[in-house]
Amino acid sequence: MELEAVKKYLEKGGDKSVSTIDGLPLRFFERLTMEGLRVDLIEPGRLICSFKVPTRLVVAVIFTVGAPATGVSVEINVSYLDAAYVDEEIEVEARALRVGKAVGVVSVELRKKKTGKIIAQGRHTKYLPVASKL
Predict the structure, then answer these.
(1) What is the 3-state secondary structure (H, E, C) of the chain?
(2) pLDDT > 90: what percent of the chain?
(3) Which of 1, 96, 109, 133 is 20 to 30 A from 82, alpha carbon to alpha carbon?
(4) Global pTM value
């Protein structure tokens, strides 16, 4: 997928008229969490976004259901180090640490854009589905 297409998709996450990317349906939680997201930098293996914390994210509980054929999460961890407040500008940096044939590892860091103070750090290791040779 081209980086420009990814950028458009991320920035239109709250747009109700956007319904698919590569034929996949837009999920509820994407609209809820991605509205107002701005892509500051996108390059292979690295993404930096920013957004203002909206009230809906402070009071919402998000339930997600993985689509079939998206793989299996092997490890997910998050360390919460500080709080974010309504209308505070937040920067999100995601890095692909490894993308192999069967496993992908991503780290994410959320920072206060004004001070650079880390709010949370996370890591996600995922088993990637391998296409059957049958």
Answers:
(1) CCHHHHHHHHHCCCCCCCCEECCEECCHHHHHHHCCCEEEEEECCEEEEEEECCHHHHHCCCCCCCCCCCCEEEEEEEEECCCCCCCCEEEEEEEEEEECCCEEEEEEEEEECCCCCEEEEEEEEEECCCCCCC
(2) 20
(3) 96
(4) 0.61
